[in-house]
From TrEMBL:
InterPro entries named in the record: Gliding_Motility_GTPase, Gpn, P-loop_NTPase
Keywords: ATP-binding, GTP-binding, Hydrolase, Nucleotide-binding
Classification via Pfam families: ATP_bind_1
Lineage: Bacteria, Bacillati, Actinomycetota, Actinomycetes, Kitasatosporales
Molecular functions (GO terms): ATP binding; GTP binding; hydrolase activity
Name recorded for this polypeptide: ATP-binding protein
Top-level taxon of origin: Bacteria
Family: Belongs to the GPN-loop GTPase family.
Amino acid sequence: MASEHVEAADDISALALKILVAGGFGVGKTTLVGSVSEIRPLRTEELLSEAGQLVDDTDGVDRKVTTTVAMDFGRITIRSGLALYLFGTPGQDRFWFIWDELSQGALGAVVLADTRRLEDCFPAVDYFEHRRIPFVVAVNCFPGARPYGAQDVSRALDLDQGTPVVLCDARDRDSGKEVLIRLVEYAGRMHTARLLDSVS
Ligand SMILES: Nc1nc2c(ncn2[C@@H]2O[C@H](COP(=O)(O)OP(=O)(O)OP(=O)(O)O)[C@@H](O)[C@H]2O)c(=O)[nH]1
Ligand SMILES: [Mg+2]
């Protein structure tokens, strides 16, 4: 007899939403997708090479030896009937052209930030603001980084009022899941408001 337990992502009536995990170089995008994914995540890591030293901005991430060159992919079931497909973007400027492809049809995005290099997430914030893709900023609290409150980060990034800022640890599944739930709730509200605007 077929199992009565049907996983959300295997159920054809389940809703699957596309979410991007973006942000600057080495901020923890691959780590976040890997920690929350219930399937073995797809990764496209390559060694940081000497040739790349001339073009890659690795300041502040000295101990990093690999980088994402195409994307990360993972999946998480938020609740029965609702699965998220997670697409982690590459962090380095030379892979920007991949972002347009990845962002097609996305419900929203997580912009990961590291307060020691906050300016690295400006391009991602700009990118989603210009395309009107709802996003939340998730501050990945690296040990040793000065703790800032969500309000401080929101002000420093000059975010539109209402854009959520969440503190998280990208290595922790529950923490990552909380970020994704905040995003789905926020993006849902934003899309509904726009829909109502367009018909009124
Ligand atoms: N201490 C600490 N280390 C972390 C955290 N998140 C990620 N790391 C480490 O930081 C490094 C960068 O993580 P990645 O997940 O590869 O970063 P990324 O944003 O995918 O990097 P690119 O794809 O190269 O842009 C790795 O060595 C992780 O182990 C964190 O929350 N705390
Ligand atoms: Mg990566």
